[in-house]
Amino acid sequence: MKDIAWLIEVLISLMLTVVSGFFVVCGIMNLFTYGVDWLKFIGAIVVLIVSCYWTETLMEG
Fold this sequence. Notes:
The chain is an all-alpha fold and 61 residues long. Helices cover 90% and strands 0% of the residues.
């Protein structure tokens, strides 16, 4: 049962990493065309850093 909970936690952290990475890339692309909502852009960067760290600590064990 512990393995299932760990797997779900890893999947959630990976999903957060992918989604926040997508928002960071979209924010960078919009920066050159339309301007960017800085609050969402900085929030996406923070979530990306935290989720990468979370995923790394989960993978270590």
